[in-house]
Design goal:
The complex is a heterodimer. Chain A is an alpha/beta fold. Chain A has 16 helices and 13 strands. In chain A, helix 8 links the parallel strand 7 and strand 8. By secondary structure, chain B is α/β, with parallel strands linked by helices. Chain B has a seven-stranded mixed beta sheet with strand order 2-10-9-8-7-3-4. Chain B has a two-stranded parallel ribbon with strand order 1-12. A two-stranded antiparallel ribbon of chain B has the order 5-6. In chain B, strand 3, helix 7 and strand 4 form a beta-alpha-beta unit. Classes of the chains: A alpha/beta, B alpha/beta. Chain B: It catalyses: L-aspartate + 2-oxoglutarate = oxaloacetate + L-glutamate.
Chain lengths: 408, 422
């Protein structure tokens, strides 16, 4: 047998979040808890298909006028338009002025990739900044899209378990012109720490002065505070300030449509004449990557966003999910304070969204996994959705044990 | 006088400079228009009631309507009743789908599969599968970073490879003199391809020509490609849709494997299951051993994650359900044969009608070619006349989508084609 062309291919390093999830799945321990994966869970610890989603799927299935024909390359327009309105607000001057365009993407990741390809290959930008820390895939996406300069801006302050605002401003002030700045619109992943409105204003000041390009990653609109408008404040503010910018939207979490890969890439321009050439370039990028996006998820979201009654029903579902998370945050903090766990724990309730940067070290995380079969990331990130009324005592106990007994 | 002129010039250049600096996008050039889309747009604008759209690459029933396969409807009902969750798929996609997809291509009990030699991942239909392939090969293929494509080939093959910084070259394929396969020319060119290169092959129902090598041709191609130590990358977008027989349409793929080639393969379920917009496809590499397959899979996953993290479920679930449920599987075989049969019938009728019209041209290629498309051999001038005078819309290269022909308008088409070619 001739030797293979691929015998030099090395085993790739595993991606931590999947490896940890696997460890959870493989564990046979009765009281095991998965605090690593980024998906919502009910208080019974189960995945939740939103009732409004099930309802719409039934409607779609019963609709004999529907078929499986190709969507346009840039996706379902009714979906993209509604999604952009959801992010900016239907009466936002950028929208009423016709200066917003949007295309359907393969969820948030796909939106970021198309954005990065456009910014890199068409505008020839080569520098991008992301928060330290950030979602692991940000760096990989921009690297694959050809960016040669990818650097962090300071963000997480481990000491005060909050935002290192001065560090962030300083780093942005030193970023070269035309740098793409990846900003988390709300519910920062992995820390759960968001800038205040006052801080966002100052961030905008620096970015305007230094001519930096804002790219908002909005994966949790509605899911963070329970209020769509609240969670979009930063994006709307920047658009109102007159920035040209991009925003990627994911409907994985707020619609629970994880595996249908439904997302949107929204662009705000100053000159409406740019929109047609820009779309033609986006078309070429998409065509060479996957031709056109999947229709199922787009149909579901479009139907909900465009129907007032379904929209209200969906907003109720978001309040349910965000409400449960806020309850668990409160409960965890109370228990840790009651146990007298060393350190301060108000960051658990100050942080927002699915994730919390607990401040636990890698060694402490390992201890918790080994002894208690509670699985979290080595960064100390936990998914609040993994906590239920059934396991919250157990989780608090484990954290308390680790903090008390495991030091570096 | 001159002072005023200077002030005006100064103000204008200030305005220009301000405009350049004020928008990020002012340098964005208009991309080239999509040729096929242009055909559809022009078709839509035409008010002639007899107009025909032979540009679209999607199946139409005999009423000219999109066709949702009965097996697909049944599968969807079944899936809906199961009330499954919507959790993220693994990066590599729906495992059942991957297993059944490659099983369909090779045969479920093919030794390569039972021995675990295949890496099979879900892709965003055929395009996405090809893109996973091109991305992997651009990074890990040890040979020249060039793909050899048949002339002509599906237009999108080129950007799929160019976007990952690979070169494209061509080998002769279509013979315009016979409207058939240029077997001699293909062999000559393939013999000159540098050793250890990458060659792309359409498994069946070549797009855009409809011209497929005969089985004996494939046997010879396999030998020569082996002699040159080339890596064959098969694009199989029409299995079952070409002849109506899934095994027959997979002849080339299976023969190459039997001859010892370790192939790459992209599969699409857009046409053979009518799942166009659901984007169900698969990319496979046949490896040397299980260990190599594991290593290759780990690297493929690293490349998928920054593209879109993990693939969409809906389409893949439909495919897996159909292929896994014996009753649905046999309904599907019937459905796909039905589509293939209708296309073959339209080919026959078109050729017969052209002869009835009194055409003395050789139209044998219409029935010799296979699949959705037919390279008619008409010149761009004849095509233009066909569109302008008869409202028949097709691409400049003379390609028609046979799926766009119905029993109600095949006579009209034959008449029109005869008028412009006589």
């Amino acid at each position: 047998m001739a030797s293979s062309r691929f015998c030099e291919v090395q085993q790739a390093p595993p991606i931590e979040v999947f490896a940890v999830s696997k460890a959870f799945t493989d564990s046979t321990h009765e009281k095991k808890v998965n605090l690593s994966v980024g998906a919502y869970r009910t208080d019974e610890g189960k995945p939740w298909v939103l009732p409004v989603v099930r309802k719409v799927e039934q409607e779609l299935a019963a609709d004999n006028t529907l078929n499986h024909e190709y969507l346009p390359i840039l996706g379902l327009e009714a979906f993209s338009t509604a999604a952009a309105k959801m992010l900016l607000g239907a009466t936002h001057p950028a929208i009423t002025g016709g200066r917003v365009t949007a295309v359907q993407t393969l969820s948030g990741t796909g939106g970021l990739r198309v954005a990065a390809e456009f910014l890199g290959r068409v505008l020839k930008y080569n520098t991008a900044y992301h928060s330290a820390p950030t979602w692991g895939n940000h760096n990989l996406i921009f690297k694959q899209a050809g960016f040669t300069n990818i650097a962090p801006y300071r963000y997480w302050d481990g000491g005060k378990r909050g935002l290192n605002f001065d560090g962030m401003i300083e780093d942005l002030s030193n970023a070269p012109e035309n740098s793409v700045i990846i900003l988390h619109a709300c519910a920062h992943n992995p820390t759960g720490v968001d800038p205040t409105q006052e801080q966002w204003k100052k961030i905008a000041d620096v970015m305007e002065k230094r001519k930096l390009f804002p790219l908002f990653d909005s994966a949790y609109q509605g899911f963070a505070s329970g209020d769509l408008d609240n969670d979009a404040w930063a994006v709307r503010y920047f658009a109102e300030r007159g920035f040209e910018m991009m925003g990627t939207q994911s409907f994985s979490k707020n619609f629970g449509l994880y595996n249908e890969r439904i997302g949107n890439l929204m662009v705000v321009v100053k000159d409406t004449a740019c929109i047609v050439p820009m779309k033609s370039q986006l078309t070429l990028l998409v065509r060479g990557s996957y031709s056109n996006p999947p229709c199922h998820g787009a149909r579901i979201v479009s139907r909900v966003l465009n129907d007032p009654a379904l929209f209200e029903e969906w907003k109720g579902c978001i309040r349910t999910m965000s409400g449960r998370i806020i309850e668990m945050r409160k409960g965890l903090r109370e228990r840790l304070e009651k146990l007298g766990t060393p350190g301060t724990w108000d960051h658990i309730t100050a942080q927002i969204g699915m994730f919390s940067f607990t401040g636990l070290t890698a060694a402490q995380a390992k201890h918790i996994a080994d002894k208690y079969h509670i699985f979290l990331l080595s960064s100390g990130r936990i998914n609040m959705c993994g906590i239920t009324t059934g396991n919250i005592d157990h989780v608090a106990e484990a954290i308390n044990d680790a903090v008390c007994n495991i030091t570096n | 006088g001159s002072r005023r002129k200077v002030l005006l010039v100064h103000r204008n250049s200030k305005k220009t400079a301000h405009k350049i600096n004020s928008s990020w996008w002012s340098g964005v050039e208009m991309g080239p228009p999509d040729a096929i889309l242009g055909v559809t747009e022009a078709f839509k604008r035409d008010t002639n009631p007899k107009k025909m759209n032979l540009g679209v690459g999607a199946y139409r029933d005999d009423s000219g309507k999109p066709f949702v396969l009965p097996s697909v409807r049944k599968a969807e009902e079944l899936i809906l009743s199961q009330k499954l969750d919507k959790e993220y798929l693994p990066i590599s996609g729906n495992a059942e789908f991957c297993k059944k997809a490659i099983g369909l291509a090779l045969g479920d009990d093919h030794p390569a599969l039972t021995d675990g030699l295949n890496v099979t991942v879900q892709g965003i239909s055929g395009t996405g599968a090809l893109r996973i392939g091109s991305t992997f090969l651009s990074k890990f293929f040890p040979g020249p970073k060039t793909v050899w494509l048949p002339a002509p080939t599906w237009g999108n093959h080129v950007p799929i490879f160019k976007h990952v910084n690979m070169d494209v070259q061509q080998y002769r394929y279509y013979d315009p003199n016979t409207c058939g396969f240029n077997f001699t020319g293909a062999l000559e060119d393939i013999r000159k391809i540098p050793e250890n290169s990458l060659i792309m092959l359409h498994a069946c129902a070549h797009n855009p020509t409809g011209v497929d090598p005969k089985d004996e041709h494939w046997d010879e191609l396999s030998k020569v490609i082996k002699e040159r130590k080339l890596l064959p990358f098969f694009d199989m977008a029409y299995q079952g849709f070409a002849s109506g027989d899934v095994a027959k349409d997979a002849y080339a793929v299976r023969k190459f494997l039997a001859d010892g080639h370790k192939i790459c393969l992209s599969q699409s379920f857009s046409k053979n299951m009518g799942l166009y917009g659901e984007r169900a496809g698969a990319f496979s590499i046949i490896c040397n051993d299980k260990d190599e397959a594991a290593r290759v899979l780990s690297q493929v996953k690293i490349l998928i994650r920054p593209l879109y993290s993990n693939p969409p479920l809906h389409g893949s679930r439909i495919v897996a359900t159909i292929l896994n449920t014996p009753e649905l599987h046999s309904i599907w075989l019937n459905d796909v044969k039905g589509m293939a049969d209708r296309i073959i019938a339209m080919r026959s009728k078109l050729k017969a009608n052209l002869e009835k019209e009194g055409s003395v041209r050789n139209w044998a290629h219409i029935t010799e070619q296979i699949g959705m498309f037919c390279f008619t051999g008409m010149t761009p001038q004849q095509v233009e006349k066909l569109t302008k005078e008869h409202s028949v819309y097709l691409t400049k290269d003379g390609r028609i989508s046979v799926a766009g022909i119905a029993s109600t308008n095949v006579d009209y088409l034959a008449h029109a084609m005869h008028q412009v070619t006589k």
